[in-house]
Specification:
The protein is α+β, with helices and mostly antiparallel strands and 98 residues long. The chain is 40% helix and 24% strand. It is built from 2 helices and 4 strands. It has helices at residues 39-56, 61-81, and strands at 10-11, 14-23, 28-37, 88-89. The strands form 2 sheets. Strands 1-4 form a two-stranded antiparallel sheet. A two-stranded antiparallel ribbon has the order 2-3. A hairpin with a 4-residue loop joins strand 2 (14-23) and strand 3 (28-37). Helix 1 runs antiparallel to helix 2. It is elongated. The relative contact order is 0.24.
Amino acid sequence: MRTTCERCSKTPARLVTSRKNLGLLFAHKTFRSQALLCRSCATSRLTGDLIFTAILGWWSIVSLFTNVGCIAEDVAALSEVRKMATPVQALPADGGTP
């Protein structure tokens, strides 16, 4: 089982779910992504999704309500991610011996 970050290969990593909402005039689209990320990469992804949702998520009536849920979930995930330990480079699987 993989325990390192999918983006930078640092450890510790945990499964992070993020949501972002795109409001269109007569519809909306919600995107959900899951990845095994370290604190730095998870903070970056969640912050990006929050900015995306805050700017582009309010453009329809349905999205007004969906957007609040997406932002609440991402803020909750971000607060959990910030409690993680500082990421460090993972050791090679063979223990680093030549």
